[in-house]
Amino acid sequence: MARAPVSEAYYRRVLIKLSGEALLGGQPYGIDFDVTKQIAREVKDLIERRVQVAIVIGGGNLFRGAGLAAKGLDCVSADQMGMLATIINALALQDALEADGLFARVMSAIKVNQVCEDYIRRRAVRHLEKGRVVILAAGTGNPFFTTDSAASLRAVEIAADLMIKATKVDGVYSADPMTVRDATRYDCLSYEEVLQRRLEVMDATAIVLCRDNDMPLRVLNMAKPGASRRAIMGESEGTLINNINGVHTSSADA
């Protein structure tokens, strides 16, 4: 039986920010390959809708630069170790994507030519135009900048139509919903409100980059089946942050 045609998406090009912790699954450390397979399935759904997908991935499941520095390691060395951890994660994700029949390229902000490509903006865009998933590793290539900041920077550089921040919860809350039972979930926010309320969405540098370059950001739980698909179809999934919206709380939580 012929497969039904897949409807095209509202957004043409998206950048997904994944934390390293997202790869943990139920493990205390390392990579849960069932999680990478689930991510690959979600990304494949987007590719089938003719969406160009770039991914920035963190390394917190292996090393966190800030944590290492807090234990006395030189801050620059600690951040460089964190960058290397993101490359390990990127290679694991590339393998999962290719096992699911997709074409994927890992591009690093630091030179590791025997392992992956250097990040070159025009080359990254060309890969996207050819339908390849581009996994952007090693953050910005500089210490003291988070992978959240790297994601905002790359989203602007590749002219993404939407940036998706994948988290463990289904949007932005007034407080940590894991510990505060009556925390309010926001459907919509402006970037100024995120900064003024000090909501822990991304670090301030990342938020300002998005604000100043008018990059819409949607925060959602990518582990929720179909969440990323609904987001790229323009549906209300998670929390939308841009320069237009004011505070709009979820009717279920208001």
Walk me through what this model shows:
With 254 residues, the chain is an alpha/beta fold. The chain has one domain: Carbamate kinase. It contains eight helices and eleven strands. It has helices at 33-47, 65-70, 75-99, 121-129, 147-157, 191-197, 204-212, 227-232, and strands at 13-18, 52-57, 104-108, 117-118, 133-137, 162-167, 172-173, 185-190, 217-221, 239-242, 248-249. Strands 1, 2, 3, 4, 5, 6, 7, 8, 9, 10 and 11 form an eleven-stranded mixed beta sheet that branches. α1 links the parallel β1 (13-18) and β2 (52-57). The longest helix has 25 residues, at 75-99. The mean pLDDT is 92.
- How far is the N terminus from the C terminus? 46 Å
| H/I helix tally | 8
Form type = globular
Give the strand content: 15-25%
H-E string:
EHEHHEEHEHEEEHHEHEE
Total number of distinct structural domains: 1
Give the SSE map.
Layout: E1 13-18, H1 33-47, E2 52-57, H2 65-70, H3 75-99, E3 104-108, E4 117-118, H4 121-129, E5 133-137, H5 147-157, E6 162-167, E7 172-173, E8 185-190, H6 191-197, H7 204-212, E9 217-221, H8 227-232, E10 239-242, E11 248-249
Parallel strand pairs: 1-2, 1-6, 2-5, 3-4, 3-5, 6-9, 8-10
Antiparallel strand pairs: 7-8, 8-11, 9-10
Helix pairs in contact: 1-3, 5-7, 6-7
